[in-house]
Amino acid sequence: xxxxxxxxxxxxxxxxxxxxxxxxxxxxxxxxxxxxxxxxxxxxxxxxxxxxxxxxxxxxxxxxxxxxxxxxxxxxxxxxxxxxxxxxxxxxxxxxxxxxxxxxxxxxxxxxxxxxxxxxxxxxxxxxxxxxxxxxxxxxxxxxxxxxxxxxxxxxxxxxxxxxxxxxxxxxxxxxxxxxxxxxxxxxxxxxxxxxxxxxxxxxxxxxxxxxxxxxxxxxxxxxxxxxxxxxxxxxxxxxxxxxxxxxxxxxxxxxxxxxxxxxxxxxxxxxxxxxxxxxxxxxxxxxxxxxxxxxxxxxxxxxxxxxxxxxxxxxxxxxxxxxxxxxxxxxxxxxxxxxxxxxxxxxxxxxxxxxxxxxxxxxxxxxxxxxxxxxxxxxxxxxxxxxxxxxxxxxx
Length: 397
Ligand code: T4K
What we know:
- By secondary structure, the chain is of the alpha/beta class.
- The protein is about 40% helix and about 15% strand.
- A 7-stranded mixed β-sheet has the order 2-10-9-6-5-3-4, with helices on both faces. The chain has a 3-stranded antiparallel β-sheet with strand order 8-7-14, with no helix packed on it. Strands 13-15-17 form a 3-stranded antiparallel β-sheet.
- The longest helix has 19 residues, at about 255-275.
- The termini are close together.
- Ligand T4K binds next to helix 4 and helix 5.
């Protein structure tokens, strides 16, 4: 699409503005930690940096155990395995595909559940109808950091003898009415991927207050080896360890949490100011249950009738202007292979997930974005609305 013909005015951003651009650590702290690592010649296998990172995480997140791992997906797999999930597990469809894959990879069947439009999390009113005699657990995802309705989920789990796992990949440091999210459920999983609010390049963690579960995960993440001599294997394990270099990144990033959170909060405020009043665009508010949050995601929804363009047409306009927004999450997992073709998800109707996933856009935030960028992004969206019919003609001919 020829952008100037449509929007005119100032040139597109010379550097693309991405969703998911990483926040950076203090480089001096990081380099010092690396110097120590090279001097020690100790690179992985629960080295001193991984141990220190774990302690610091536990204190920040107010949870008894927070075991750093190589990524969030393996963290999910280990959490599900350690807690004994099998058969079928109920999981929202509106999530990153890793949540479903972590189950399927272990031959557990994900059974997709619809979501609440209000806060994007799994709808507890739709869970019970999906329970069968093969169901062993529920995974809730704190989508965009919004906490799942833990009270309702625990009620259902208690009535049916199910385990609860929370995918807290978006909710690092978030608290619900004063309770840290990692204290909810039997076990929680974090992601420290490069694109996350808090990054260790690649990384993740499992958080739990349960000593027995924590011990199992410590063994499972290291091939199941027990004892110093490594002559005994207690579990079928995997290699889920976090390296020393990733742990160094984590330690250096911990010093930055407050500042990044403040930057994200400010950016949200800028979007609120500059996007407000654009017909058909709603800047979604974080859940009112959050007493502490990282403001990691800036989410808008597009009402096509009001705005004049569909969400996908707006994404095309933003792309042409070098604003690389994302459709997190589109489509729902139940519409992706192999799930869409397989029992019990084949033909599954999840109307709220389908509707919401057609309208959401995640906009750039974090430290690489400032108010001037947000003014320009908002300006592109405003102009797209004003020139909607010309844009539709340019796209569709
Ligand atoms: N559960 C949930 C709810 C999750 O959201 C995720 C991950 C997981 C579980 C699994 O955790 P991990 O195993 O990943 O730790 C990205 C991330 O790769 C993924 O971690 C994240 N969720 C998901 C929501 O987003 P993609 O496939 O969209 O990434 P990609 O490569 O398209 O990059 C996204 C944007 O970030 C682009 O605009 C480019 C930018 N970027 C990316 C990287 C890697 C950078 O600017 N620099 C970078 O280094 O999945």
